[in-house]
Amino acid sequence: MRFSGKAVLVTGVASGLGRAVAQALAVEGAQLALVDRAREPLDQLVSELQKNGCEVIHFVGDVAQEQTSKEAIGLALRQFGKLDILINNAGINPTGTISQTDPATWQHALDVNLKSAYLFCREAIPHMIEAGKGVIVNTASIAGQRASTGESVYGVSKAGLIMLTRTIARDYGARGIRANAICPGVLESVMADRLTRMSSDQVLARDQRFAPTVPLGRLGTYEEIAKSILFLASEDASYVNGAQLTVDGGLTA
Ligand SMILES: NC(=O)c1ccc[n+]([C@@H]2O[C@H](COP(=O)([O-])OP(=O)(O)OC[C@H]3O[C@@H](n4cnc5c(N)ncnc54)[C@H](O)[C@@H]3O)[C@@H](O)[C@H]2O)c1
Fold it and tell me: Which Pfam families match (predicted)?
């Protein structure tokens, strides 16, 4: 039980990867503070975890708002008396070249995918410094490491998130804080906001297009990425700081 007695805050848990991360952390004994804007699926996850004996609190809010970071971290500190691990996972996946992306969409993507992590880190770091230790994991993407066709602002936001992570690693390593980014490749499940813009045929075509291009011959699963996030969050990664852990089946090798 690598996370027994560890207080962990995870954002973007109502579906997909965040949900898989929360479930895996619960199995390994973590005390959880979960944040998402989607109330109903968040409530469902919380009851499922509580039934399995996990100590879990939750906060419904928009991670791009400073108030959410302050209130959610305040809640976690009141409940657990500390915050050992912060996992900034919430994200959206707007598509389009820069000509196809209007300024409001551009700004919203940067706010949700990048500013939110800055806000949560800014709120958590003073408490981690006081404790003399802390771990941050940010969910980036291979789209932040090399340009992906038609994913302009998404890629820019994830590249920014990688540099935010590295900046924190350099500035706060001496205070006992580790910060790392996870960079998933193409996963079996399309992100929820993008799925609303795709038909099932388009999803199938995407899977058939990408799978043969991956050296491992298939797309990744949320459970596989969650295992790598738990590695970075755990003491197993005690000397890993400022890294971008690419988990893409070799797609960008
Ligand atoms: N699915 C993929 O192929 C893939 C690949 C690489 C990276 N990622 C990254 O993994 C992370 C999770 O993606 P996913 O596939 O689970 O997507 P998802 O759409 O299933 O889950 C995203 C979660 O974030 C929440 N969220 C979105 N905007 C929010 C906001 N403003 N405030 C609070 N909560 C908000 C959503 O409600 C949802 O629960 C994202 O950061 C994404 O960029 C995903």
Answer: adh_short_C2
